[in-house]
Amino acid sequence: MFEAQFQTFDEPEGGTALAARLAAFREEIVQRGLAGFIVPRGDSQQNEYVAPSEERLAWLTGFTGSAGLAMVTVREAALFVDGRYTLQAGQQVDTTAWSIQPLTDPPPEQWLTQHLKDGERFGFDPWLHTTAGAERLASACEKAGAKLVAVESNPVDAIWSERPAPPLGPVKVHTLTLAGESEADKFERIRAEMDRLGLDALVLSDSHAVAWTFNIRGADVAHTPLPLSYALLPKNGQPTIFIDSRKLSNEARAHLASLAEISGPEALLAALNATAKGDAVIGLDSATAADALSRAITAAGGSPRRVTDPITQLKAIKNDTEIAGTRAAHRRDGAALARFLAWIDHEAPGGTLTEIDAVEALETFRRDTGALKDVSFPTISGTGANGAIVHYRVTRKSNRRIQPGDLLLIDSGAQYEDGTTDVTRTIAIGTPSAEMRDRFTRVLRGHIAVARAIFPDGTHGVQIDALARQFLWQAGLDFEHGTGHGVGSYLSVHEGPARISKLGHVPLRRGMILSNEPGYYKTGAYGIRIENLELIVEAKIDGAEKPMDTFETLTLAPIDRRLIDVAQLSDDERAWIDAYHARVRTEIRPLVDEATKVWLEAATEPLA
């Protein structure tokens, strides 16, 4: 009945094959005169999701998480992961060959300094590291008396005989009816920022920036409609887009040819060389531009200047068309979610469903809309102890049966051409415990505090983050992830630059879309998270002395009333929940079948 087309549940590769790969890798780096090498999890643009041909870290180590890196010397090998993936890494990696280390504290460079010897040469691929990252590696090597060496070709690729070919996903035009702003208007705004930054040219090293600027979308990586590409935008004259022409339909080719010169990716360095002559100042995005680009500009006599790509901020502030599209996408998504939640409520108490069943059902309900292009990330479907793993991904081996008395945490999203969604609901299967209801209500109150917040325009996310945690803190509890991330418009579900977290130091502006997702996780028992997407809008206050903002909730899905301890709530919090549920009922009811309508009426009743 249900199936997943956009995600799999396969087990990561492991065993003796990985041990042999590590041995072959060491032989390769020794042949190159190196004592060690670093293998990051990423591609030349620091993308979150990468093409199969770029999964070097997973191929070498077996670790499939979205953040990590490996350092290999002739003597030792270490895998660095953040706290989300410590448990996963221990399950996937041969710990007799690899030590598992923290990714941030202490930084991996400290390990490197401690494990290199005087006079040794440590290699890195300058296409897979930013210049700032390369500088940190060089400093660590220097402290050990060693030298950092940029290689011309990656040694992993030399031994990865079955490495997939680079992707050739078709490029589509993202029409003005979806984008809401012409390419010419975008060029004008970008060049105004270039003037402010004193740039002669700007390299678009982030495919998200290329997609937004040229109003195109692609299919080169999973879950994000990216056309892997670069662009070079001069202060004056025609831009150049660097993209494999085999991806271009006649329509896409004609669209791009009307805007820019089209060249293959291999022509990028030559174009940089020509542009850099005469000490031209060329902007490179400090977050995504590979060190190889900076090296090329310098070698040609130009001046690379590290900047925050101005497109990042422009792209984050959605225009009226994009806002209308995301509202439509969330209504459509809300109908699919209602069908799913009604189905779970009917089927799960029987104890026959599994985590994978839930993933497949939810994706199927979204596909039934006829508008689903992809899921926006692999669905997190965790019940019982698995729910306490923040970034859990179910596999056929880990798949757990959903039992009465459990909580089911399901975090999912969709890619529609008019908008990107991301929503988490925690569902009681049977009767929840008093502790579960207490923790859920504390999370919910923090969620409501963020949703109802009123703040000056330009407030930083760090200033809002504590609102989500206050009721957990009162009980000596907390959660170890950020409260919210930016979301794109049929682009990345995790979009910068703004976020709500302890590290959120970018001003929040009207038109940005952010998640609101506090949680609580009891290791070995259950997990709770409540997530809606929020649009920053003007807060109209009589007598206000400065521009004030607030949030408009975009997500439309019932919150499980069975998990709410109403006695904890203030009158205002109860009113917010009842008003939210009334809105969900009004907007979603016309879009669902009769059986789901019956469930929806009960699920959105006012709190008793």
What does this structure look like?
This protein has 608 residues and is of the alpha+beta class. The protein has three domains: 16-159, Creatinase/prolidase N-terminal domain (Creatine Amidinohydrolase, Chain A, domain 1), CATH 3.40.350; 172-312, Creatine Amidinohydrolase, Chain A, domain 1 (3-Layer(aba) Sandwich), CATH 3.40.350; 320-601, Creatinase/methionine aminopeptidase superfamily (Creatine Amidinohydrolase, Alpha-Beta Complex), CATH 3.90.230.10. Helix content is 35%, strand content 19%. The protein contains 19 helices and 28 strands. A six-stranded mixed β-sheet has the order 4-3-2-1-5-6, sandwiched between helices. The protein has a six-stranded mixed β-sheet with strand order 12-11-10-8-13-14, with helices on both faces. It has a four-stranded antiparallel β-sheet with strand order 21-28-27-24. Helix 4 (108-115) packs parallel to helix 5 (131-143) and helix 14 (320-347) packs across helix 15 (355-367). The model has no long low-confidence stretch (mean pLDDT 96).
